[in-house]
């Protein structure tokens, strides 16, 4: 009994494991295993058939050896169609001929009937629900075993009444396992369908967020331009006033252009503009620019530099933009003022910029969503600044890590690969 259970478990493992293995290593979003990947399915089920035949097990009596090769044959024929079924039949027939022994011709004939007839049930099988599928594979399995039983009686004179208990147990054994296999496949397919649906939903949601962000951000400068143009059309202003309005119009148009450039940065690589730059002077320049803004909000910036060289491959203008976005967010997070710590750290292989504020902080869920389109902790924010910042860092081969605690502040670490000195 122990040997029988060990052999049965081995056969079940030979059937189930290839299916699980494929799902583990398949590319996300492209795992429509039992529809689009028939070659892979054929190879895996062929291996299952061979292993089941090489490692059979005795069933209830030492005179009766059994294996589960029909499970991958039937399942492969239903999901893969005639071509897959034909290949699996050849593999099974060659293996059975190599094993030889009594009942070889009956086994091959049985396999031929399965390979020829089961694929025609495929269209019906794919239309019914999972429980009808389980019932159908169980019935096919039973019919196949009944064929073997009656063929043994007619060709070899095997007394059916003496072996009916064994055959019933075989039917329940193989039928139960093939139901388990079919339900597992259906479960994996359902999970894949849900995964692909979620991916499509997220893509559509991203597009809608982009549209909302563009609409929200562009409306303000366009409304200003529209208002000044209407004023110039309706009233006669002195030349000096007209020039003032025109200058304001140009500034608002520049705001709209910068906004569009920000969105293009998110989608458009900047590799053509990459060159060797030193982070320390670039960081000093940004601190100089942001200091008046910090002072106006009662925020004091403390800088801790590094004497070591800090060369990286990047674009100075884009680096300025990324640093400004994070420093501005840190300043704005401290509504009652505070200290903003900026530290440049260099090592043998990396250059890191640490930016830490004493602001309101964020929850772990909010930290995970940083960089998503249209996600912002600000009441009127669109998340565009950090979205662009994450894209810039990615294009420059860098990385961003965020540590934050509600009520205690946030620390951003920008890490870049360091170029060799020289």
From TrEMBL:
Q: Which GO terms describe its molecular function?
A: ATP binding; phosphorelay sensor kinase activity
Top-level EC class, please? transferase
Task: Cite the InterPro entries for this sequence.
Answer: HATPase_C_sf, HATPase_dom, His_kinase_dom, HisK_dim/P_dom, HisK_dim/P_sf, Sensor_HK_Regulatory, Sig_transdc_His_kin-like_C, Sig_transdc_His_kinase_LytS_TM
The annotated topology with respect to the bilayer is: Multi-pass membrane protein
Query: Quick one: a GO cellular component term?
Result: plasma membrane
Does the record bear Membrane in its keywords? yes
Q: Which EC number(s) does the record attach to this protein?
A: 2.7.13.3
Keywords on this record?
Answer: ATP-binding, Cell membrane, Kinase, Membrane, Nucleotide-binding, Phosphoprotein, Transferase, Transmembrane, Transmembrane helix, Two-component regulatory system
The portions of this protein that span the membrane are 12-33, 39-59, 71-91, 103-122, 134-156, 162-185
- Please give a single GO biological process term from the UniProt record: cell wall organization
Q: Which CDD domains does this one have?
A: HisKA
Q: Which SMART domains match?
A: HATPase_c, HisKA
Subcellular location(s) per record: Cell membrane
Q: What is this protein called?
A: histidine kinase
Organism the protein comes from: Planococcus rifietoensis
